Amino acid sequence: MIDPVLLGRHLHELRGSRGLALSALADGAGVSVSMLSAIERGEKTPTVVVLSRIADGLGLSLSRLLADLENDRVIVRRAAEQDHVAEPGGWHRTVLTPVVPGVNFEWIRTTLPPGCDAGSFPAYAPGSHEFVAVESGELCLGVGEASYVLAAGDSVYFPADTRHSYANRTGKPCVYHVAALIMRPRKTG
Fold first, then answer.
1. What pLDDT, in 10s, does the model give residues 135-177?
2. What is the pTM (predicted TM-score) of this model?
3. What is the b/e burial string over 139-149, where b = at least 16 CB atoms within 10 angstroms of the residue's CB?
């Protein structure tokens, strides 16, 4: 398992060795300064997507960024360590998976309150995939120009290299899981 304090120190050292201010790396990585600062202090464990962005901002692959930090092949993420994110509009997501070096996979549990629209998400890089399974309630999933209504127990796969959206148009909460394999565009050089 990757120790968040060691990860934070490692990122701080890498940033310093490149002569980058916190704000410069945050801008280059597309991550907020407060998030990057919390990660460097070891107070927050970033998701795979955020770590991937930071690696890009440092001009490294994700596996290279984390190569010296992996000290165990089994990574346990306790419930208390999971990232719980309250999003604008009242919806909530929990990142269930641990960060695994070189693997751009996330498993997320999302709760949409009645009548909540979580909004539209941009297309990910070609080769990205999403699997969605509805635990309870009803989910309206948009994929490109198409729309699908999924009930409890339903699941779907779609290539995530297209714009997609999630909404609950009912009067009851909706809980669903997203398993995502997100590819990153490769940088030359």
1. 999 999 999 999 999 999 999 999 999 999 999 999 999 999 9
2. 0.62
3. bbbbbeeeeee
User: Could you give the CA distance from residue 160 to residue 128 in angstroms, rounded to a whole number?
Assistant: 5
Residues 179 and 107 sit within 8 Å (Cβ to Cβ)? yes
DSSP character string of 81-128: GSEEEEPTTS-EEEE-SPP-TT--EEEEEEEE-TT-EEEEE----TT-
**Under 8 Å CB-to-CB from 167, ≥6 apart: which residues?**
112, 116, 117, 118, 139, 140, 142
Distance CA 153, CA 116 (A): 20
| Cα atoms in the Cβ-side hemisphere of radius 13 Å centred on 67 | 6
Cα separations (Å) of 49 from 45, 86, 145, 172?
A: 12, 18, 25, 30
- φ, ψ of residue 60 to 5 degrees: the values are -125, 160
Instruction: Give Cα separations from 91 to 7, 56, 84, 171 (angstroms).
Output: 29, 29, 11, 14
Exposure class string for 15-42: b at 16+ Cβ within 10 A, else e: beeeebeeeebbeebebeeebbbbbbeb
Record the tokens describing residue 127, joined without a space: 């080769």
Q: How many whole angstroms separate alpha carbon 81 and alpha carbon 77? A: 6
